[in-house]
Design goal:
296 residues; alpha+beta; Alpha-lytic protease prodomain-like; Alpha-Beta Plaits; 2 domains; four-stranded mixed sheet; 8 helices; 10% strand; elongated; transmembrane helix; cell membrane; Protein p34
Length: 296
């Protein structure tokens, strides 16, 4: 089983455990803020399932209907996560409003906080694993899931502080106030997840650092060619796509031109994992005298 799929399954299991703990914390205390935390955990679990499905689809090899692979499935999952985060925030706003209208004294706040803190620590550990591994594996779904969990860690910490202050001061209105602040933070997180995922769906170019690396490799490895131009890149999940025109001397044989292409492709695959390269070879009169200068 691929590591990406194992992590996605792990997210579902961790999500179930954290949801159970946070629901218990709310049941013990009756806190609106802790209820908002539990509601967010429901979204965490749902998005973990979405990430699992997306990772399974993205891992499928290219076929006749999807010749470029299924990598973009992970972006759809990340967009869904963002939307669900926003929906959770709206539910929390609703509960916070009712709490403002009728503040209530919390039951067993210390016991509930201890349970909630345990769930928060577990979420923090797993979020770190997801973000680090997701970046290494170039998995947008895992990274989005990890960032979402980090948001949950931050908001859960804020909830714990708010509930503790309400208990110490007796200002029970702090409980729904903290729930409202949680909702605002969640809305911001959801927007960021959706924005980053849409960039992948819109075939956004690779980061400038990666693009510079690709250009440098073409320049140094395409010795024998005249120039390279019209370089285009995009990323889709773990895959990177690059295509460009390679101008060679008019008298060069097809064999020699193909050797140059093979050399460039091999160097690019070594430097950029999971890259797909498409090179269009052109004769010298097609030179644009711009683009990438080949170093002989």
């Amino acid at each position: 089983m691929h590591l990406t799929l194992k992590l996605a399954i792990g997210s579902v299991l961790v999500g179930c455990l954290v949801l159970g703990l946070k629901t218990l914390a709310w049941w013990i205390t009756g806190s609106v803020a802790l209820l908002s935390d539990a509601l967010e955990s429901i979204v965490n679990l749902a998005t973990a399932f979405a990430a699992l499905v997306a990772v399974r689809i993205a891992a499928r090899p290219a076929d006749a209907n999807h010749p470029f692979g299924h990598h973009k499935a992970e972006f759809f999952s990340a967009v869904l996560e963002g939307v669900m985060i926003i929906v959770a925030a709206l539910f929390i706003f609703r509960e916070a409003y009712h709490g403002f209208m009728a503040p209530r004294v919390l039951d067993a706040p210390i016991e509930g906080l201890l349970v909630n803190i345990g769930a928060t620590v577990l979420n923090g550990i797993w979020a770190t694993v997801l973000v680090r591994r997701g970046r290494l594996l170039k998995s947008p779904a895992l990274v989005a899931d990890g960032r979402h969990l980090w948001t949950d860690v931050v908001t859960s910490s804020g909830v714990a502080v708010g509930v503790l202050l309400a208990f110490v001061t007796g200002w029970w209105i702090l409980d729904p106030l903290m729930a409202a602040l949680v909702a605002v933070n969640i809305l911001w997180s959801g927007w960021r997840v959706v924005k980053e995922s849409l960039s992948g769906l819109m075939d956004e170019a690779v980061p400038e650092k990666t693009l510079t690396r690709i250009r440098d490799i073409i320049s140094t490895e395409a010795a024998g060619a005249v120039e390279a131009h019209d370089l285009k890149t995009r990323h889709a999940g773990s895959a990177t796509f690059a295509e460009f025109h390679l101008v060679v001397p008019g008298e060069m044989t097809v064999y020699d031109a193909h050797e140059i292409c093979d050399r460039v492709e091999a160097a690019l695959r070594k430097a950029v994992p999971d890259i797909r390269v498409n090179i269009h070879v052109e004769p010298e009169h097609k030179s644009k005298h711009s683009g990438i200068v080949v170093i002989d």
